[in-house]
Design goal:
mainly alpha, flat, two-stranded parallel sheet, 2 domains, 8 helices, 2 strands
């Protein structure tokens, strides 16, 4: 994580060298990781807000370790507490509806804005509504989920095979990157055009490469590599 600070320093140095000016600025935008459903990280555990905030403090200190450069680096970030509640709403089940209603009845409004957000109100609502049901705020957020667990969104079809997502999650834990399926055999993720899925890609002003993976449908032809 501290490499982010070092990279921002390199950006400032490069900008000064290229422009011959000292008033070069860079901005770091960073936030806590919030796992999302229908992704390989839907089983991942979130970090506790105290851990997130401590890492942000270390990053800020590293940015300002060289004051001549650090004063030209801005930081935009999300604290750990709002991120944890975002994680609750991201991967919660029907029981979290009770929490949302309780927060609302307790005066919660526009909690997406930092000046209105009240972490304690959410914690109290979770304790009152979830713990009698045998779960908790931490149960939905800071624990790692297991493969056999039935996830609240399993009844929704995103087009991605759950086993494929699990395999990709295992690869991520091992630090293995996923290859581009346009150049290697199909991974059977579930969204290949040959399965009747209509994949929409926004205009780029350039000719797009075919999405058909190797071994599925029409062979890939890339004009850039044509003789």
């Amino acid at each position: 994580m501290l490499q982010i600070a070092h990279m921002s320093h390199d950006v400032i140095r490069a900008g000064r060298e290229a422009s011959g000016r000292k008033d070069i600025r860079a901005t770091i935008s960073i936030g806590a990781f919030v796992p999302k459903l229908h992704t390989p990280f839907q089983w991942a555990a979130q970090e506790h807000p105290d851990v997130v905030d401590e890492r942000l403090r270390k990053l800020r200190a590293e940015v300002h370790s060289d004051r001549r450069i650090g004063r030209n680096v801005g930081m935009r970030y999300h604290d750990g507490k709002p991120s944890l509640i975002e994680g609750l709403l991201s991967r919660g089940d029907r029981r979290v509806g009770r929490v949302i209603e309780r927060v609302w009845r307790a005066g919660g409004r526009f909690d997406g804005w930092s000046e209105h957000f009240c972490y304690d109100r959410w914690v109290d609502a979770c304790a009152a509504e979830l713990e009698p049901l045998g779960v908790s705020l931490e149960w939905f957020t800071t624990r790692e989920r297991e493969h056999p667990e039935v996830l609240p969104w399993d009844h929704l079809d995103s087009g991605l095979d759950k086993q494929w997502l699990w395999d990709d999650w295992a690869d991520a834990l091992d630090g293995r990157e996923q290859d581009d399926c346009r150049w290697v055999p199909c991974f059977d993720c579930g969204v290949c055009p040959s399965m009747g899925t209509d994949i929409q890609v926004g205009p780029s002003g350039r000719q797009l490469l075919p999405i058909d993976p190797v071994g599925q449908g029409t062979p890939v032809h890339n004009p850039a590599f044509s003789g």
